[in-house]
Design goal:
This protein has 386 residues and is an alpha/beta fold. It has one domain: TIM Barrel (Alpha-Beta Barrel). The chain is 46% helix and 11% strand. Helix 9 links the parallel strand 8 and strand 9. Helix 7 packs parallel to helix 8 and helix 8 packs parallel to helix 9.
């Protein structure tokens, strides 16, 4: 608790130790799991620094590999150097994400009561579109087994969000069943198409049906530099540009897909969350969809039977960023029942003062709204009982 507010961190992350894959995956897949490789440069560090115009005295950070290829699309050399320095400065935070006791200590220091935990490197594996179906599903199972042990340290405070591999719709449904058996109330999927299947593809209909029936919330979360078609990847190389593009634009298209494809119409009790893109895009996107729906409803009336904004208000949630402009206008436009707060701890774009920043919003938002954002709304989204 902080300043008389209970806080449910709706978007917190773990850092998966690379060795856990061999330990938690089924025997038939061992020897074909991710590993780290250290980049070696024959160029003297001083020469690299002069050539790149940034400090390049440290060796590049180890790169995660799978089957002889990097798990992520390669970053340009300057970005690799900058991220190496940033990661080195934040090693303590990254280590906290790999250890449940350290995670809890960091939560205590910030006043976080409960955290819903999302993957880090596992999301990149889910972004390898060419990964064979059986192995993609095996990676999701291995991650969820590891996360179950991680959360067992303090199950009331560390809440697992189960990872779903969308490569194989049948296996996605089976893994959802295992998530329910663990007592978890949320799962995470990536927003981008898999094998040209959008989230509203008929192949995923049994998955959405099962999520609604089991009252499992679905968090939609993206990550840049994956080996699958992602917004911005066809025209940008920098970490900056790809992060800006994928997080925001993919959330907008995912919401549109779930509405246009009839998922939200057919599953009115389904809860869906959109993470790590802020909330400022929501009023415009709802206005844009409503405006065009008013003129073109006949085209989609069979599976879109109400204004798109009604679906959002009924069953969708979105995380806000405390520093983004226009939060009071967002609340005016969409209300305060659909807003969540997440720290993104311990990722490199997260900063340690984010809890102070969200509490400072009491200067512009009512205490009742802040209480909803910090606890009531995420508790409702994740189906947490008091």
């Amino acid at each position: 608790m902080r300043d008389d507010h209970r806080i449910l961190d709706a978007d917190r992350h773990v850092i998966e130790p690379v060795e856990m894959w061999e330990e938690y995956i089924e025997p038939e897949f061992r020897g074909r799991t991710p590993y780290l490789a250290q980049s070696v440069s024959a160029e003297p560090p001083e020469a690299r620094t002069a050539r790149l115009g940034v400090k390049a005295l440290l060796p590049p950070a180890p790169v995660m590999m799978l089957d002889g290829q990097t798990v992520c699309h390669e970053l340009d050399e300057r970005t690799q150097v900058e991220l190496t320095w940033l990661a080195t400065e934040r090693l303590g935070l990254l280590a906290m994400g790999a250890n449940a006791e350290a995670q809890l200590a960091a939560m205590d220091a910030s006043g976080i009561d409960v955290a819903c935990l999302y993957p880090s490197f596992a999301m990149h594996l889910m972004g390898i579109e060419s990964l064979e179906l059986a192995r993609a599903s095996a990676f999701a199972r291995a991650y969820n087994r590891w996360l179950q042990d991680y959360c067992a340290t303090a199950p009331a405070r560390l809440r697992g969000v189960g990872l779903i591999a969308l490569h194989d719709p049948a296996q996605a449904l089976a893994e959802l069943g295992r998530i329910v058996d663990r007592g978890w109330t949320a799962a995470v999927v990536r927003p981008t198409p898999h094998q040209q299947r959008t989230l509203a593809d008929p192949a995923y209909e049994p998955f959405w049906t099962a999520c609604e029936a089991a009252s499992v919330a679905v968090g939609i979360h993206d990550v840049p530099h994956t080996r699958s078609p992602t917004a911005g990847a066809d025209r940008f190389r920098s970490h900056f540009a790809r992060s800006v593009s994928c997080h925001s634009l993919e959330m907008m298209m995912a919401l549109l897909s779930l509405i246009d494809g009839g998922v939200l119409e057919h599953h009115p009790a389904l809860r869906v969350g959109f993470f790590e893109a802020g909330c400022g895009w929501v009023p415009y996107w709802l206005w844009r969809m409503d405006e065009l729906y008013a003129r073109m409803a006949g085209e989609v009336s069979e599976h879109v039977r109400r204004a798109p904004s009604e679906y959002f208000r009924r069953q969708c949630f979105v995380t806000l960023e405390p520093g983004e402009p226009g939060l009071t206008e967002v609340v005016r436009c969409i209300g305060d029942d659909n807003l969540l707060f997440g720290t993104d701890f311990p990722h490199l774009d997260q900063h340690t003062m984010v809890v102070e920043e969200v509490l400072a919003l009491r200067a512009s938002l009512p205490e009742t709204t802040l209480r909803k954002v910090l606890w009531d709304n995420p508790a409702r989204f994740y189906g947490l009982r008091e």
